[in-house]
Amino acid sequence: MGIPMAEQLIKADYAVTVYNRSKEKEAALKEMGASIAETPNDLITANDVVIVMVSDDAAIEQIFKGEDGLFSAEIPGKIIINMSTVSPSISKEMAAFCKEKGSVYLDAPVSGSVKQAETGQLVIMVGGEEDAFNKVKPILEKMGKMAVRLGETGVGNVAKLAINSLLALYTQGLAETVVFANQQGIKTEDLLNLINNGAIANTFTKIKGDVIVAGNYKPAFALKHIVKDLNLAKAIGLDSPLARTALTTFTDASANYGEEDLIAVIKQLKG
Questions:
Q1: Which residue in 79, 71, 78 sits closest to 106, CA to CA?
Q2: Which residues contact 219 (CB under 8 A, 6 or more apart)?
Q3: Phi, psi at residue 120, to the nearest 5°?
Q4: Catalytic residue list
């Protein structure tokens, strides 16, 4: 996700510097004109605004506080935008940490996958100081079609976890529907044709339906990450019947299909 998001900023003529823990992933951005930072601290030294996009709370802890991390040296006056899907608690912790260092933290997770990142059509939900949000909103609007501040620190994370919980329910529902129809002798292509031309048609069903038909489960959003997000949502109070069922199903599926796209849950349901 971070690579196409950075590409949008380069295309918009921002001076972009990148740091990636996987050095081979920097090459394409360097060819587009980005500068390369050797460490997170080098990155924040060279820029007033830093955007973080990593996988989980542990990675955030390392990026901010690790050796050569963003604040391994005292560098005040920065705005750090964390666009990762992480817990509200880590955002509150990092916001307090950034304030101690004289900088400002925004949580700004995104709704959308790689395709939306590649076309600048992400939806961005933000928690944190309003003044900081207004300063960086033009940057966010180059990466997304909508950037909305919802409230104080952590609320952007809560909104993202709510949306991803619905994503899990959609995904399992679609997979179960296809499996049921197949068991009754209906071809997947015929079922999807009906769904995609009916009242419940939506972009997600079209995209994931194509994945099922093609049998190519290369991850746009890895199944293991929806398990992480459902657990994060559970930790802050999500305990509904459908959410409990989805967490069990995706956790079971993750053992064999965690590195594949989340719609690979259909393999688990087929047994």
A1: 79
A2: 259, 260, 261, 262
A3: 65, 35
A4: 160
* Cα four-point dihedral sign 188, 189, 194, 196: positive
**Cα(44)–Cα(51) distance, rounded to whole angstroms?**
10
* 271 residues of the chain, pLDDT tens digit each: 889 999 999 999 999 999 998 888 888 899 999 999 999 999 999 999 999 999 999 999 999 999 999 999 888 999 999 999 999 999 999 999 999 999 999 999 999 988 899 999 999 999 999 999 999 999 999 999 999 999 999 999 999 999 999 999 999 999 999 999 999 999 999 999 999 999 999 999 999 999 999 999 999 999 999 999 999 999 999 999 999 999 999 999 999 999 999 999 999 999 8
Question: What residue ranges define each of the domains in the chain, with the CATH number in brackets?
Answer: 2-152 (3.40.50.720), 158-270 (1.10.1040.10)
Residue with tokens 């920065």: 78
- The SS3 of residue 7 is helix
158-197 CB burial, b ≥16 within 10 A, e <16:
bbbbebbbebbbbbbebbebbbebeeeeeeeeebbeebee
Q: pTM of the entire structure?
A: 0.94
Q: 269: helix, coil or strand?
A: helix
Give the span between the Cα atoms of 10 and 71, in whole angstroms: 25
What DSSP designation does 91 have?
Answer: H
How far apart (Å, rounded) are the C-alpha atoms in residues 25 and 23?
5
Classify residue 238 as left (phi > 0), alpha (psi -120 to 50) or beta.
beta
Q: Are strands 110-111 and 144-151 parallel, antiparallel or unpaired?
A: unpaired
What CA–CA distance (Å, rounded) separates 270 from 179? 7
